[in-house]
Amino acid sequence: MNDMSDKELLQKNIEEFSRLQSYMVLVDKDSDAYKAIKVRYIELKVILTASGVNLTDLDIIKE
Q1: Which of 4, 19, 53, 54 is a plausible cystine mate for 48, CB 3.0–4.6 Å?
Q2: From the CB of residue 44, how many other CB atoms can be counted at a distance below 10 Å?
Q3: Residues sharing a CB contact under 8 Å with residue 16, sequence separation 6 or more, in sequence order
Q4: Binning pLDDT at 50, 70 and 90, where does residue 4 land?
Q5: Which residues of 47-56 are buried (b: 16+ CB within 10 A; e: fewer)?
Q6: For residue 23, what are the CA distances in angstroms to 7, 28, 34, 39, 60?
């Protein structure tokens, strides 16, 4: 079994966070798609903040 290192996992989460935000700006905030994406956005925001990542510049949605 090849486990991801902490650094690789953190990088994966940062990339997913950025990707989700790019989707969020493309869809209407009242859409079901936006609401579904926002759930994962919040989860990743919590994970990254708990991991010590400063989201000031990375978080373009700021919700």
Answers
A1: 53
A2: 21
A3: 40, 44
A4: confident
A5: bbeeeebeee
A6: 25, 10, 8, 13, 12
What is the mean pLDDT of the segment spanning 30-54? 97
Cα–Cα dist 37/26, whole Å: 11
The confidence score (pLDDT) of residue 63 equals: 87
Nearest partner of 25 among 61, 63, 62, judged by Cα? 61
Torsion angles phi and psi, residue 49, rounded to 5: -65, -45
What integer is the mean pLDDT of 38-46? 97
Q: Which two tokens stand for residue 58?
A: 């990375």
Cα 20 from Cα 5, distance rounded (Å): 22
